[in-house]
Amino acid sequence: MANQFKYKHLLIKSGDRVVVHQLVQEKDKKRVQRFEGTVISIRKGVNSSFTVRKLANLGIGVERIFPIDSPWIDKIEIKEPAKARRAKLYFLRSKKSKKDLKLPKDEKRVEELKQKRRQEAKLKKK
After folding, report:
1. pLDDT over 50 (residue 1)
2. Fewest CB within 10 angstroms: 13, 66, 75, 121, which?
3. Domains of the chain: which residue ranges?
Protein backbone atom coordinates (compact mmCIF):
# COMPACT_ATOMS: atom_id res chain seq x y z
CA MET A 1 0.00 0.00 0.00
CA ALA A 2 1.26 3.46 -0.85
CA ASN A 3 2.24 5.94 1.81
CA GLN A 4 -0.45 8.33 2.94
CA PHE A 5 -1.08 11.11 5.43
CA LYS A 6 -4.03 13.09 6.70
CA TYR A 7 -4.10 16.84 6.27
CA LYS A 8 -7.08 18.33 8.08
CA HIS A 9 -9.92 16.21 6.59
CA LEU A 10 -8.12 15.03 3.42
CA LEU A 11 -6.34 11.73 2.88
CA ILE A 12 -3.35 12.36 0.60
CA LYS A 13 -1.49 9.44 -0.99
CA SER A 14 1.53 9.01 -3.22
CA GLY A 15 0.58 9.63 -6.85
CA ASP A 16 -2.12 12.21 -6.13
CA ARG A 17 -2.09 15.41 -8.13
CA VAL A 18 -2.23 18.20 -5.55
CA VAL A 19 -2.14 21.99 -5.30
CA VAL A 20 -0.20 23.27 -2.29
CA HIS A 21 -1.02 26.85 -1.23
CA GLN A 22 2.02 28.19 0.60
CA LEU A 23 2.26 31.52 2.42
CA VAL A 24 5.24 33.56 1.24
CA GLN A 25 6.48 36.62 3.11
CA GLU A 26 8.24 39.33 1.14
CA LYS A 27 9.41 42.18 3.37
CA ASP A 28 6.19 43.24 5.10
CA LYS A 29 3.72 41.66 2.64
CA LYS A 30 2.30 38.15 2.74
CA ARG A 31 0.89 36.37 -0.27
CA VAL A 32 -0.19 32.85 -1.25
CA GLN A 33 1.87 30.96 -3.80
CA ARG A 34 0.47 27.84 -5.49
CA PHE A 35 2.54 24.80 -6.41
CA GLU A 36 0.75 22.13 -8.43
CA GLY A 37 2.22 18.70 -9.07
CA THR A 38 2.29 14.99 -8.26
CA VAL A 39 3.13 13.65 -4.80
CA ILE A 40 6.10 11.35 -5.40
CA SER A 41 7.06 10.52 -1.80
CA ILE A 42 5.88 10.86 1.77
CA ARG A 43 8.27 10.74 4.70
CA LYS A 44 6.89 9.92 8.13
CA GLY A 45 8.33 10.35 11.59
CA VAL A 46 9.53 13.36 13.54
CA ASN A 47 10.40 15.35 10.39
CA SER A 48 7.42 14.24 8.34
CA SER A 49 7.30 15.76 4.87
CA PHE A 50 6.08 15.12 1.34
CA THR A 51 7.67 15.78 -2.04
CA VAL A 52 5.72 17.28 -4.94
CA ARG A 53 7.06 17.21 -8.51
CA LYS A 54 5.88 19.18 -11.52
CA LEU A 55 7.15 19.75 -15.05
CA ALA A 56 7.97 23.36 -15.87
CA ASN A 57 8.67 24.81 -19.31
CA LEU A 58 10.71 22.73 -21.77
CA GLY A 59 10.25 19.55 -19.72
CA ILE A 60 12.36 20.68 -16.77
CA GLY A 61 11.31 18.91 -13.58
CA VAL A 62 10.85 20.92 -10.39
CA GLU A 63 10.51 19.28 -6.98
CA ARG A 64 9.64 20.86 -3.66
CA ILE A 65 9.69 19.26 -0.25
CA PHE A 66 7.00 20.49 2.14
CA PRO A 67 6.93 19.74 5.89
CA ILE A 68 3.49 18.36 6.71
CA ASP A 69 3.02 20.37 9.91
CA SER A 70 4.40 23.63 8.50
CA PRO A 71 2.53 26.79 9.53
CA TRP A 72 3.40 28.24 6.09
CA ILE A 73 1.11 25.78 4.27
CA ASP A 74 -2.22 27.54 3.91
CA LYS A 75 -4.10 24.60 2.40
CA ILE A 76 -3.72 21.55 0.20
CA GLU A 77 -6.22 20.65 -2.52
CA ILE A 78 -6.43 17.27 -4.21
CA LYS A 79 -6.98 17.83 -7.91
CA GLU A 80 -6.86 14.23 -9.08
CA PRO A 81 -6.58 11.18 -6.81
CA ALA A 82 -4.52 8.39 -8.35
CA LYS A 83 -3.79 4.73 -7.75
CA ALA A 84 -0.09 4.15 -7.18
CA ARG A 85 1.39 0.71 -6.73
CA ARG A 86 4.51 2.01 -5.02
CA ALA A 87 5.14 4.24 -2.03
CA LYS A 88 8.00 6.18 -3.63
CA LEU A 89 7.43 7.23 -7.23
CA TYR A 90 11.00 8.19 -8.09
CA PHE A 91 10.67 6.58 -11.52
CA LEU A 92 8.62 9.65 -12.55
CA ARG A 93 11.86 11.67 -12.49
CA SER A 94 12.91 10.11 -15.79
CA LYS A 95 9.63 11.08 -17.52
CA LYS A 96 9.88 14.16 -19.71
CA SER A 97 6.27 14.84 -20.73
CA LYS A 98 3.16 15.65 -18.73
CA LYS A 99 1.33 12.79 -20.44
CA ASP A 100 3.83 10.28 -19.01
CA LEU A 101 3.34 11.64 -15.48
CA LYS A 102 -0.35 10.67 -15.39
CA LEU A 103 -1.25 7.73 -13.20
CA PRO A 104 -4.57 5.84 -13.32
CA LYS A 105 -7.40 7.54 -11.41
CA ASP A 106 -8.74 6.13 -8.16
CA GLU A 107 -12.46 6.20 -9.02
CA LYS A 108 -13.62 5.48 -5.46
CA ARG A 109 -11.73 8.47 -4.04
CA VAL A 110 -12.87 10.68 -6.94
CA GLU A 111 -16.51 10.05 -5.96
CA GLU A 112 -15.78 10.71 -2.27
CA LEU A 113 -14.16 14.05 -3.13
CA LYS A 114 -17.08 15.07 -5.33
CA GLN A 115 -19.53 14.35 -2.50
CA LYS A 116 -17.46 16.36 -0.01
CA ARG A 117 -17.26 19.31 -2.40
CA ARG A 118 -21.04 19.23 -2.92
CA GLN A 119 -21.63 19.22 0.86
CA GLU A 120 -19.21 22.14 1.33
CA ALA A 121 -20.98 24.09 -1.43
CA LYS A 122 -24.37 23.51 0.25
CA LEU A 123 -23.01 24.73 3.59
CA LYS A 124 -21.60 27.89 1.98
CA LYS A 125 -24.97 28.71 0.40
CA LYS A 126 -26.73 28.60 3.78
Report:
1. no
2. 121
3. 4-125
State the architecture of 4-125 in CATH terms: Roll (2.30)
At position 33, the amino acid (one-letter code) is Q
Over the stretch 86-124, which tens digit does the pLDDT of each residue have?
A: 889 998 888 877 777 778 888 888 888 888 888 888 888
Q: Are 50 and 68 in contact (CB under 8 A)?
A: yes
Q: Is 92 left (phi over 0), alpha (psi -120 to 50) or beta?
A: alpha
CA distances from 108 to 1, 33, 44, 112 (A): 16, 30, 25, 6
3-state secondary structure 40-106: EEEECCCCCEEEEEEECHHHCEEEEEEECCCCCEEEEEEEECECCCCCCCHHHHHCCCCCCCCCCEC
